[in-house]
From TrEMBL:
This is MarR family transcriptional regulator. PANTHER family: MARR-FAMILY TRANSCRIPTIONAL REGULATOR, TRANSCRIPTIONAL REGULATOR, MARR FAMILY. Transmembrane segments: none annotated. Keywords: DNA-binding. It comes from Paenibacillus odorifer. Gene3D superfamilies: Winged helix-like DNA-binding domain superfamily/Winged helix DNA-binding domain. Residues 1-140 form the HTH marR-type domain. SMART domains: HTH_MARR.
Amino acid sequence: MLNNELITSWLTLTHIQMNVTNELEANLQAKHGLSLKEFYLLLFLSEAPEKKLKLQKLEAMVGLSQSAVSRLVSRFEAKGCGALERKACDADRRSIYTALTAIGEDKLLRAQDTFQETLLAAFPEKDVKELLDQMLRMKQQS
């Protein structure tokens, strides 16, 4: 019986996560012309030293293959919005950095408000904190 409860809980959690992900994607696209992966790309770059990262590093962070990250950056550049720029690595000319521009930072700041509003609409802040605390406790007990 416990096994079925665990499976049901897991399926419920993944269902909630998929719904919230879809809502985030729709709101970011409608209000900022950003996909969720593009938002994550801007976010990770904003948190990186000098606001730049090698494509190989971005792969693991964004959860895409090297070619998919490269296409994501290329599509972003093709939009012509000036949010990203590619730079050659001084130490290794074969490596390329993707860097966040001031335009990209501004775009991210506006999109973060939408991201947070969407999460707070999906989960009241108090409920999210309690849920995350419960999940952390469960993880620590195992």
